[in-house]
Amino acid sequence: MPFDTPTPPPSAGETSYVNMTQVAERPQLDASLIGSHCEADYCNLLDFLPFLCQSCTKTFCLDHRTESAHKCAHAGAWAERKRQAQLAKPSYGAGRQMQSLVAEKDCASPSCKTRIGTSLVQGVHCDKCNRDYCLKHRFEDDHDCKNLEPIGARPAAAVVNKAFNTAFSNFKAWTKTNKEKAAKAAGRALPKAKPTSASQRIVAVNDLKKTAKGDDKLAAEKRVYLYVEAEAATTTAKLPKGKFFYSKDWVIGRVLDAAAKSLQIENVNNQSNKEEDKLRVFHVEGGRVLEYNEKVGAALTSGNTVVLLRGVGPSTPDLIEL
Q1: Which end of the chain, N or C, is less surrounded by CB atoms within 10 Å?
Q2: Start and end of every AN1-type domain (predicted)?
Q3: Residue 149: which domain range?
């Protein structure tokens, strides 16, 4: 009887599908794909949609999902954790001081001493007179609002008219003074009316360019040539007038500083808050006081005349026309 010859092992380059099948491990299936067994006593039901108990962290079937159904060992633990978490949260407005729209103060009515802006008595703000009142005096008729000047409001019309009249008087005094000096000093030439025709303006500007003073480093296309004078009525100047050129990119405030220095006028604009002490630049052709932040190139042209006035106030309109 012949003996069975043993099968030689496969070479390195060959593959034995029989051996691979016997050796290969079976794939491990995820337990969540096939469900979980209920952990309740005597149940062990395989449930494909098990319920997790938040108190004891065990899984149960539909019938034993409640704490009372599976006799939870930590009954109420989940509810207690939720309650503690809610208590740990800060309450609404914690750490903040609730304030009224009106600060705590007395009622603005002179005859009332009620304290407003408190937690018990809320104040009412009047937009007309910009004051705070109690509930009793909150209406306009109750606190005589129409006869009160609003707090922080602009000056009344009478104050504006007074400043305007002062500026107009200063300008008239400047004109009258120049005329009187011209009559007394026959050889003194005063500024003449600006030429009206284009050719006359060109000739006047060319003559101005020959004698105007300024920064020689300034490019020619950037220069604006001006006649600059000082008002004799309110401004004391060692040099009453001059011819200068400035950059188009400068602002009027810088021109004022340079002109005051050239004419040796006292300039206290940065030292005094009073309007009667401040210098302003008046544009003769435009008939108005120029703002400090205006650009020279936008407000002035070569050949114009500007006058340094003191105490005229900002933006006085149309002095010449009036």
Answers
A1: N
A2: 32-80, 101-153
A3: 102-153
Return the pLDDT at 227.
Answer: 87
Beta strands in the chain (DSSP E): 36-37, 46-47, 51-52, 59-60, 105-106, 115-116, 124-126, 131-133, 223-230, 241-247, 279-283, 288-290, 304-310
The pTM assigned to this predicted structure is 0.39
In angstroms, the CA 12 to CA 273 distance is 104
Distance CA 216, CA 107 (A): 65
Looking at the structure, do residues 211 and 239 belong to the same domain, yes or no? yes
164 and 301 in a single domain? The answer is yes
Tell me, yes or no, whether 163 and 146 share the same domain.
no
How far, in Å, CA of 224 to CA of 245, rounded?
5
Q: Of 51, 46, 92, 83, nearest to 69 (Cα)? A: 51
**For residue 114, what are its two tokens?**
């009620």
pLDDT over 90 percentage in the chain: 18
Mean pLDDT is lowest, of 15-24, 83-92, 153-162, for 15-24
The answer, yes or no, to whether residue 33 has pLDDT greater than 80, is no
pLDDT digits (tens, 9 = 90+) for 4-20: 555 555 554 444 433 43
- Give 182-212 pLDDT, tens digit per residue: 444 333 333 444 666 777 788 888 888 888 8
Pairing of strands 223-230, 131-133: unpaired
In a domain, 3, yes or no: no
